[in-house]
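@channel sequence for tomorrow's demo:
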Amino acid sequence: MASNRAVVSVKAARAFRHLRPWCWRTDLLESPSGDAAGAVVSVVDQGGNFIGQALYARASPLALRLLTRRPADEERVDDAFFRRRLEGSIKRRAALLPRDALRLVHAESDLLPGLVVDRYADSLVLQSLSEGMDAREGLLCRLLVELTGATRVVARDDGSGRDFEGLAREVRSLHGSGEAVVDVREGENSFRVDLLHDMKTGSFLDQADNHLRAGQLGRGRTLDCFSYHGGFALALARHSEEVLAVEQDEVAAERLRENAARNGRKQVKVQTANAFDVLHDFDRAGERFDTVVLDPPGLAKRTKGPDAAMRAYRELNVRALRLLQKDGLLVTCSCSGKVTAKAFEEMLLAAAEDVRRPIQLIERRGPGPDHPALGGLPETEYLKVFFVRAL
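structure tokens (generated this afternoon):
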């Protein structure tokens, strides 16, 4: 008879009991039998003491993702279980629902490991980042349509995280038909989003609150680097006399121009260029700005690791601080999960020392409340945003 029990090491058992919801395959002493994709298994320690029920991955280095600490005779992991979890996740965002673009499910943080669901108007984008959720995508789509009334659901299963899980990358429609392009609002501005082709699930929803906050504080002549579709640039245009938005990707830059025109932001000018090069050229030319935004992609993913990423972040921030007028505002971001908030702040202080310029740390921010972090899982605290005044 097939066993649905997984036995974990002392180290993994201790981690589970300290609220960490993962177990690496190297800490799996006895694997469950059977080959069902995304099976739910009972997790026990070496003494047979029950720990919880988890999703088991057959190939991923991350073998177990905890679902519940209650045994099966108290809480069955069935269709009703997933419906309750989805209902709870959506209910926790009730105060935010006047927004027409937000995250409804934030994976482990909402006790639905490996599942991301974003809402764009009456459409949903679903991402399965674990074998367990991938195997249940049809069920999850049906439940989400019932709970939200969504007219369209798209699967954006094309992220690099699926490589880690041994899952194929794909993009497909799960529910509804027609063009998967929607218009959503962020504060005063409207943005066009292509759910099938734009980055992430269509937009950088985790930065929405930071876009708006920058729009409240930014003034004067503004430089927005790594602008993508203009989330920071259009918000900053509210009080800025001139906004130069720099975006290297030509398709994204063209969408940025369209978004600026749609919202009547004539002061937003778009330059299709590499932000590192632009900062270097402006520095050499003695250009000055009242506000500078740095929102680069996850540099630790694109370099040889955290050390190389920190060198790149330092270079960016040194040049930005040199470009700022007295009392100018710097908004500097990192979405690299491998870079801690402490390390990022230390880098920022080192950059200030390099240019011999005192700085005020105005605000330390992260993603909005629709992207909560899970206690005990620091990997969910990936986004760091510092608002800094250069004196």
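heads up for whoever presents: The CA atoms of residues 158 and 169 lie 4 Å apart.
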